[in-house]
User: Fold this.
Amino acid sequence: MVHPDRFIVHNEFISEDRAADYFQRASVVVLPYIEASQSGVIPMAYSAAKPVVATTVGGLPEIVEDAAPATSWLPGMRPQLADAVTRLLLDAQLRRRLGENGKRKMEAECSPNVNRSKNTRHLPSSCRESCWTDSGSRFSGRDLQIKRRHD
Assistant:
């Protein structure tokens, strides 16, 4: 790290409450990965309506591009990455719009109702609302609760 005095590093487990607080306080979430497959940081940032600037590695562009075009950059393109971050930091309206785009994307693609629909669409309609598993547990598609069957 070039300027460690300008950063606070928490190299430890971060609880969900603490992570939520960090995302609420952030203006922009920057992911300058050199390599990655996916990142759980992006959905968390978008759920908090925060814009994301990321490098185009692995599956990151699949998530970032739709919500925030022109905020993804190839690794090593530091000036462009810095320009994207600076532009967002200086433009509150753009930050808000891109953050809201990300939030809508998460609600449309990753909400429990959407995931339930994706995971149960192959089942007969009579089974989508309530199914029994082989282990004797009752799966209720309506509320995603697992209950033991008492015969």
User: Anything to note?
Assistant: The beta strands are 29-31, 52-55, 72-73, 130-132, 137-140, 145-148.
